[in-house]
Model the fold of this input.
Amino acid sequence: MTKIISYAVIVLLVGFGFSWLADRPGVLSIVWQGQLIEMSLMVAASILGGLIATIMIVWWLFNTVWNSPRAAKRYFRARKRDRGYQALSTGLIAAGAGNAILARKMTARTQGLLSADQEPLIHLLEAQADLIEGKYDAARRKFEAMAQDPETRELGLRGLYMEARRQGANEAALEYAEDAARNAPYLPWAAQATLESKSRNGEWDDAIRLLDQQKAAGVIDRGEAERLKAVLLTAKAEEKFESDPKAAREDAKQALKLSKDLVPAALVAARSYLREDNLRKAASVLEPVWKNAPHPQVAQLYVRARSGDTATDRLKRAERLESLKPNNVESLIAVAQAALDAKEFGRARAKAEAAARMEPRESIFLLMADIEEAETGDQGRIRHWMAQALRAPRDHAWVADGIVSEKWLPASPVTGRLDAFEWKMPFGHVEGPIEEMSVDQALSSLPDLAKPEIREKIIEVPVAVRETAVASVQSPVKDDPSTGAKKAIVEPASTARDQQKTAQKTPEPVPFFGGLPDDPGVKKANAEPDEKTRLKLF
Done:
């Protein structure tokens, strides 16, 4: 575009010059060797322009003829170089595709067209061809030679690192990575491998220093660098929490400044404050994290911050969490658990049902079973909620690379990747309910409470007699006027089967094997076959 504009400007200037001369006519007289030459000014300007153009053309022809041998040599050299690079490109593509025959053929052609000193990628193509053919020793020697050359040093170290990883020589691979990271901290693979190794060995200060170098070199984004630094600081704080709680607290607080939703850092800082019985500062650390990312471990530490608190005090603290994060599952669960401890069963049940409607999962239904056991003790209702827990989605846990950990870890034990653990549903577990059933259906199918006198008798009757009495739970219970004891009326099996066919309301009672149990508390009534048989309970 610039050339076009320049050409247009020059043409305009020349045209303007000739028009200016045409508007101002004149005569030019030249006396040369006694000859008088007269011409107009326009003719003189045209002759001058033609003379300049002729000189330029003659100079271009002379320069072209003079430099033609050198130009021809450059042309053939460029053509040969282009053919060599084309062969090199084809060879690298063949090596990447696993075509060893074509890769080796292109290697030979490239060596004939290009010099190895001129193009270092020829060494890479040779090494790749050796790897495809299974000549690992030859490939390693070529990578070692590349590592000695300053121009290909990084490429050679990368090849040696990958070969060491392939052969399982992790220590040798780490040495190559550290060597590369020492001279070139901007290499992502070297810095990442060194960082993971130092994290795996617990060298937190060295890992933080290397991470700062990566951030300064622009290898890693600022947000990711701050998150990883927060993870390293948290791991460092957890390691020295027992020996130096104050220093651990400072590292944890610095980690929270870099990542406000890092739950493990908040837990370390809060526990450090609680060791000093500073409940206010511990709450000031946990509450912001709870607002950003509600977590059951945060709720547990917040609610049970002081061992001497009563159940009512813990309930008030749980209500404080709910006010900070309303309409949240974890808030509802925390209040429900605290209300259960305080024996406020109605409130505990309401909060647990609300949490189950919002996000049904295993722990919520188990909590409802605990509430049922503490309030009513009805085994049928307890088993109902436990059955719902079996069909509900599993609870979240710390998961990384298929590993489920009871506590948070800074790096994955499988790959060594930093910040790998996430609070989510474990792998291999069903992510949805096994059997689709809403909470409203579960509540509507909740069994009715058994009668108090029946529950008492089930508890008091021995185990051998209890199985017999189960068949008579739905039969009427009357007082015996002679003894004052309770009597449960049991219908014969034939009568129960007839009623099942007609009414389909109650299941068929399970018959006794070999007659009624021989127990002094159970007596068989002498009645006609068409009368009901009575079973006397204590």
Notes: Strands lie at 27-32, 35-40, 397-400, 403-405, 422-424, 477-479, 486-490, 533-536.
